[in-house]
Amino acid sequence: MLWLRDCFLLVLLCLQACTQPADSTIRFGLASAPANLDPRYATDATSARINRLLYQRLVDFDERIRPVPALARWEQLNPRHYRFHLQPGRPAFHDGTLLRAHDVAATYRSILAPDSGSPHAGTLRLITDIEVLDDDTLDFRLSRPDPLLPGYLVIGILPAAGIANGVPFHAQPLGSGPFRLAGWPEPGRLQLTRIADGQAFEFLRIGDPTVRVLKLRRGEVDILQNDLPPELLGYLAAQPDITVRNGPGSNFAYLGFNLQDPVTGNASVRQAIAHAIDREGIIRHILGGAAQPAAALLPPGHWAGHPGLQQIKYDPEQTRSLLAAAGYDDTHPLTLHYKTSTDPVRLRIATVIQQQLAQAGIDLQLSSYDWGTFFGDIKAGRFQMYSLMWVGIKTPDIFRYAFHSASLPPEGANRGGLDDPVIDQLIDAAGQGATLEEQAAIYRQVQAQLLQQLPYIPLWYEDHVVALRMGIEGYRLAADGNYDGLRQVRKSLH
Fold it and tell me: Would you list the DSSP string of 385-411?
């Protein structure tokens, strides 16, 4: 019945779309509002993308996700000692005070404080000392060598005085980024100003994708990015006053399993499921072609990616063979419970996977929940099988966080309970690599081993898509889905 609903909504769009009077503010429609504008504590994707606009960071990434200087360049004095030099002419904080090395130190010390509660603290625990040498220079000393350190230092810098005085940055952000806070009158309405030219922006939470599209057609919103089903994108692409563009993305969709479960803990069962899924078909018919099949969490173009990995083939006969070897057949079918969210696109994908597995002899019982309930269950280990997406992954330490046996929740995100000595040893060895090249070689072995063991089933990397009203110019999509294109975007009034 979903298609009937979608057809009705498309007709409604056609009937109701009328242009509203234009003004100079650029409005950005969001599926979810930012939850926390303190970069030390933000974890949701929307907050992270907004915080990139509000704050500067020591280090950023290039197109291959290699660390590059942002606020600072660095030198490695020895394997456990890094020195950072703040760039001359760097922007001041939005209150006019100079950003100094003392502010950098205060930001990271506050994250590392025993009672901080920052979700970033675990990654940064290898930092044993931060020493400020002068206003422009500071040193980081480590408990162990780690060439990835610069890639960890991507958290927005806060003013030391505000940290000391307990300023609630989550609601009153104060950074040195290209945008400053102009107002936050309600949770679903955030106002920023672009410092370079005073351009006003408004970010509006509009949960329902059809309503977002309607508001774009009416001129109440100027930009939509992602979180739109293919039929609505197709509708927008046919409108003369709307431009729709796609770009390659790195957001990684996967199926996860409870490896402590006697059924999904069986590698043959997971392999059978993997061969039963027609990824190409789902990408073509459900995602409108806006995704690329994946064989690993990191894209092949990442500096630690593995371009040599082979995609899992769609092969229902292989599925039946593997099931038979595991003791399942038509008289003793495999039954599984699959959890997903109530997001319309995710639910549709889950329904198609259910149908595909049924054709291969697997009875998949589907349950959908609101996001809070669903994600709470996943974090708590209350699942047999589920689908999720990793968003904005930058550094390969994600493998320790998600797959090392020491990273069970709440210490990490090894939610399936993987306990594989070979994978643990490889992850440990990668972390001890003296250079990024050495680490990359070992991380490729990790990815090959994960593809063999299948504690998760790689699905695809979703493309990013943006829909722009006529008059919006200069917006560029980023591979990680950030909103940096707003630095250059322009609006002409008609």
Answer: EEEEEE-S--STTHHHHHH-GGG-TTS
- Judge if the upstream peptide bond of residue 293 is cis by omega within 30 degrees of 0: no
Whose CA is closest to 204, among 17, 18, 33, 21? 33
Q: Residue 389 contacts by C-beta under 8 Å, 6 or more apart in sequence?
A: 251, 252, 253, 254, 462
Residues forming a β-bridge with 242: 469
Residue type, 352: V
Distances (CA, A) of 232 to 13, 28, 213, 244, 381: 10, 17, 7, 11, 35
What is the C-alpha separation between 107 and 101, in angstroms, rounded? Answer: 10
For residue 271, give both structure tokens.
Answer: 């392999």
* Domains, the chain, ordered by start: 2-36+175-247+465-491 (3.40.190.10), 56-161 (3.90.76.10), 249-462 (3.10.105.10)
Of the candidates 447, 430, 422, the residue with the CA atom closest to the CA atom of residue 148: 430
pLDDT in tens, 183-213: 999 989 999 999 999 999 999 999 889 999 9
Residue 9 corresponds to which tokens in the numbers above?
């909504």
Packing angle between helix 209-218 and helix 230-237, nearest 10 degrees?
10
Q: How far apart are CA 305 and CA 299, in angstroms?
A: 6
The DSSP output letter for 438 is: H
Considering only CA atoms, which of 373, 447, 383, 392 is closest in space to residue 417?
383
Residue 365 DSSP one-character state: E
Instruction: Check: CB of residue 175 under 8 Å from CB of residue 156.
Output: yes
DSSP assignment of 300-358 equals TTSTT--TTPPPPP--HHHHHHHHHHTT--SSS-EEEEEEEES-HHHHHHHHHHHHHHH
Alpha helices (H) along 99-201: 101-112, 121-124, 149-152, 160-164
d(CA 144, CA 80): 6
- Rg of the chain in Å (alpha carbons): 24
pLDDT tens digits, residue range 378-417? Answer: 989 999 999 999 987 888 989 998 999 999 888 788 999 9
Question: Hunting for tokens 């769009």 — which residue is that?
Answer: 13
Give me 352's structure tokens: 């198609």
Phi, psi torsion values for 419, nearest 5 degrees: -140, 85
- Both structure tokens of 224: 């939509």
- Read off the amino acid at residue 378: I
Share of the chain above pLDDT 70, in %: 95
- Please state whether the peptide bond connecting residue 316 to the residue before it is cis, i.e. omega within 30 degrees of 0: no
5-36 pLDDT tens trace: 454 455 454 544 455 546 899 999 999 899 89
Pair of tokens at residue 97:
């005070």
Beta-bridge partner residues of 194:
179
CB 52 within 8 A of CB 58: no
Q: Where are the alpha helices (DSSP H) in 207-255?
A: 209-218, 230-237
User: Tokens 């456990």 correspond to what residue?
Assistant: 80
